[in-house]
Design goal:
Elements lengths: L6 H9 L4 E5 L58 H23 L4 E5 L9 H12 L6 E6 L6 H13 L2 E9 L3 H7 L5 H13 L3 E8 L6 H12 L5 E6 L2 E2 L4 H6 L8 H14 L5 E4 L9 E3 L6 H14 L10
Parallel strand pairs: 1-2, 2-3, 3-4, 4-5, 5-6, 6-8
Antiparallel strand pairs: 7-9
Amino acid sequence: MKFWNAYKDYLIDRYGFPVYRIGVDGGFSCPNRSADRKGGCVFCDSLGASAVYARSKESGFTRRSGFETSPPQTDSVFAGLSLQQRMESVRKQIERGKEFIRRRYGSNEVSLYYQAYSNTYGPLDEMEALFRDSISHGPFYELIVSTRPDCLGDDVLKRLCLLKNETIDVSLEMGLQSGSDRILGLMNRGHSVGCWKDSVNRASDKGLRVCSHVILGFPSETRTDIDMTIEAVNSSPVSALKIHNLHITSQSRLLFDYFGGEITASSTARYLQSVVYFLRRIRPDIVIERLMCETPAHRLAAPRSFPDKSGFLMELERMMNQANAVQGDMYC
């Protein structure tokens, strides 16, 4: 029984087979990490969600590694390079990614995923040149661009649509995190729910598929806040969601509050309850691309006693089955 609209099923329905992502760091930055925005989102570590296999100095760590308050790699190793150097670094990342996917999955079917930081923040000509160069090292089924709602002006959308019309399908990943402006303020997100809604609507109007990120279990979040997130998602044209449990990581601003005893991260049981509640109330057509965080163990202060992905999904399916629940069965 299918309890939610899984991303793997969506890809098979669309292409006839699984398609895997090659995540790259293009040397972009983030406006929310500058001094005037007080250091970025409080949950963000200094690597900006870069792919694990792009973290060249961390290859010696495993799933069983202990937490490191000062891990060896604390910033993008590609930041500060010239455009030509960035192009070359992305080419190398693509080759490593292709080899990783061939070795792990036995597949050559891939999409290109600009994963780290805000990939539409910076000079437009450089952004377009970097994307075009990297696309040429395919073939890729899709170009997936991770960014923020306040880095998505009409000029950016125009460039992305040129790529979509000329060369490759293009989609966006855009963080919402919460439908409550109160929670967004505590996160130091640097944008409002209204800004996110506007950006999603403009991107969708131009034919770009949008996946948004949501965090459940942020400190002081209430059921009302979760309901506001559900309402924001359901009233928008988002095509997909990534749902995350709060992770307290090294180099993040939340770490100080955690060590000071001021906050905690959700237990497995509490997060599972929140996910079931959330899934049952969102539109059934929304594709679920992720249901939990997978931060490397040496960067994760809390939660430490969380199951691996397989164990978590098995328990979530058991709870959905016990409740006779599926995604959207309480959507209205």
